[in-house]
Specification:
mainly beta; five-stranded antiparallel β-sheet; 1 helix; binds zinc ion
């Protein structure tokens, strides 16, 4: 079965992604930390991307983060995003270490973004799917 997100067909989520989304819907951004090498990562997966161990522990992020890098899309990546251009796609590093690709919302394009700009988690939804986005803090 394919889940739908208003205009975008999404694959059926894995058990780890389902857990991640359920916690995010409750306002908690969680990530996984390897029990063997202690690497931490996002997005959810069933093994450590560093040492491939299947043993990990979930942790909740504080929601504090910083800008690592960004680009501004002037042409929509998907027709569902056509009314959003220009928008930023930003590499965000959580205070706890994991990085994720996200968007900084509440600004026009990339106004106010710089390397190390402090950010705060802003959970939004696309259809019925929670999405971890960020605001300037
Ligand atoms: Zn590991």
């Amino acid at each position: 079965m394919i889940g739908t997100n208003s205009q975008i067909d999404l694959p059926e989520p894995s058990p780890d992604l389902t857990r991640f989304r359920n916690r995010l819907s409750a306002g908690r951004l969680s990530f996984q930390r390897c029990d063997e090498c202690h690497d931490a990562w996002l997005p959810p997966r069933d093994h450590c991307p560093h040492c491939l161990s299947p043993a990990f522990t979930w942790e909740d992020a504080s929601g504090r983060a910083r800008v690592v890098s960004w680009v501004v899309y002037h042409r929509a990546f998907h027709p569902a995003f056509a009314d959003r251009v220009p928008y930023n796609v930003t590499v965000v590093e959580l205070a706890e270490g994991p990085r994720l690709i996200s968007n900084v919302v509440g600004i026009s394009a990339a106004d106010g973004l710089a390397i190390d700009t402090p950010l705060a988690l802003a959970v939004e939804t696309e259809g019925d799917v929670p999405v971890a986005r960020f605001r300037l803090s």
